[in-house]
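Let's practice the habit of predicting before peeking. Look at the sequence and jot down your guess about where helices and strands might fall. Then scroll down.
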Amino acid sequence: MKLFYSLIIFSILNNVNCQLLPPLPSPNLTFIDQSLALIFPIIQNFKNTITLDPFGVTKTWTGPDICNYKGFYCDNPPNNSSAISLASIDFNGFQLSAPTLDGFIDQLPDLAIFHANTNNFSGIISSKISNLPYLYELDLSNNQFIGTFPMSILNIKTLTFLDIRYNLLTGIIPPQIFLQYLDAFFLNNNNFIQKLPDSIGSTSAFYLTLANNKFVGPIPPTIGQAPNLLEILLLNNLLTGCIPYELGLLKKAIVIDVGFNTLTGPLPCSLGCLENVEQLNFAGNLLYGQVPEVICSLKNLVNFTLSYNYFTKVGPLCRELIENGVLNVEKNCINGLPNQRPILECVLFRMRIKLCPLQKSLRIIPCNISKFSPHRPERHLISYSALSKHTKLY
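Done guessing? Here is the structure:
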């Protein structure tokens, strides 16, 4: 009979899909809170997966005092003001290498902030991170993550800051991401290829950087509906079509950069309504016609770049900006100005000009120019900082 039961037990064990559990903490360790005791083995397991630690960071990851591990920060969880738990991780600049973060950050239930700029983490971004109820800042920039956009991010309702720039991500981004309540969204320097969705106009973001990808097609006219946009960077993509009149409706905008695409047509006069704008970059496109004087009358302009286009005329206000070093019109087709394109190249371009579908809208000025505010001092521009790999944004 004993043999019979032994055979049954053996059979059951061989047909169970066993899952290895993390080791329990040593009974000799004393933690200041039970929640820290529970995540101790998770941290130690992750530590064992790290293949490179040039600054010896993980040497501090020993013993029960997790709150003093380098890069780890504790606080009271939102649901228990008397408890102590791991609330934040900042690995920025540590240059750690590990094949995956799966099984690490997604197992830290009270994590609110995870920053890991400038490391060598790879694999895909785990779908399990959507299980973190308090996560509101996620920075995975300048790593080696592969695969498509992590769709699970759409399920993180608390997220307000997302930075996945400088990775190896491909495919498309879901239109729903622009419906998330994100304050800042950086996904520049990946390999996303698609048309910009109309939902971009629904973004609540203040900072939106989509530069250095492979976005195609026109800039959606809905962009003018984005209520909070301060800085938008679309440079170095494959955008085509004419610049929409609605771009001039971004009344709060301080930076607009659509340089080095293949956009064409005249500049819309509506851009003269961007009373707060400091940086306007349209360089490296196929734009033509006269540079609207109403844009050159903007009081806060610090840098207005139109180089490497096919503009043919500038008025007195624009010439004043050129003299002051604010407006750059090199490599255009403007008679009498230095460093312009060869005449033959300008003639050949004019022979193949195609008018914009809504040409009349480009002459509309939907604002009262006389009510503009006085000049404000130049400030630090967050989105341009995103174009530098190693910059910590927040």
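How did you do? Residues 172-388 form a domain with the Leucine-rich repeat, LRR (right-handed beta-alpha superhelix) fold (CATH 3.80.10.10).
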